[in-house]
Amino acid sequence: MFFRRHIVLACLHFSFQEDHEIFDLVSAIEASEGKGTTFYSWLNVPSTASTSEIAKAYRKLSMTMHPDKNPGNKKVAERFARLGVVSAILRNPASRKSYDFFYKNGVPKWRGTGYYYSRFRPGLGTVLTFLIVLSSGVQYLIQHSNYKRDLKRIEAVVREARLAAWGPKMIPIEGQRKVKVNLGGRQRYDEDGNSIGGKTIDMVVSGDAVHILDPDGDMHPVDSSTAVPPTIRQTWFIVHVLSVYSWSLNKVKGIPTEVQPTDDHEYDDGYDSTATGSEQAGSGTVTPQEDVGGNRKPATKAGGKRRKAVRKR
Length: 313
What we know:
Oligomer: single chain
Number of helices: 8
Helix content: 40-55%
Radius of gyration: 38 Å
Largest sheet: 4 strands, antiparallel
């Protein structure tokens, strides 16, 4: 059973190779002899011609394009070699049967992955380029999906805030109104024992504008600009290239590279005297404190570890 299957696969492989040879030959003949030229029309014989008639036509045509009669003519030499292959295919019953199938039904436009891979076998650089483009494209699509999801979530939060501030009739009110908006999650209870359906945040509705209210009183607008839109620049390969470029540039200029920028923002000495820990997204720091002498203390991360400051030169 195993050997029979192996023989069948070998025969199929040989058949595919033969078909691929016919495909190449058909394309080459149409390119050199004119579109629509077939093996039979080139030999000037009907498709029902016998083997002897094909051999006779081949000898007649080959005499006119023999390399000895056309010295130094590379194109004629290629045509002569091609003519020999055509004659060999048509004089072989199995090969002729394969060609006659495509002669009657036409050569397929899509010739199979095996054909294209064998003719245009990609190198390592091509494969890497394809993988980079593919993975970056997938990452961009994920970014786009997350962006759409964030927009829907922002729209829902804004609607809930306005509903809490304006009431069921959704009639805008003048001035500001502080409301609590439920973000979902498991049920909780407030200080008075009232049931709260999940996690809530403090928000302020001022006209049509909706803001998130921080514990320190700062307000942050919530609208479509809050969501981060997808960009090619944020895909992993572009981020890596820009990071390496920035690192190389800083190395040449002699700029310390202890803390590398990951975005377009400029880095200062590591502190912002006006921002709280919640405003410094992703930093993991709290607001810098000042001691009695007026000197600034290094900001600390959650957990008590000190963050090293980078001085300007």
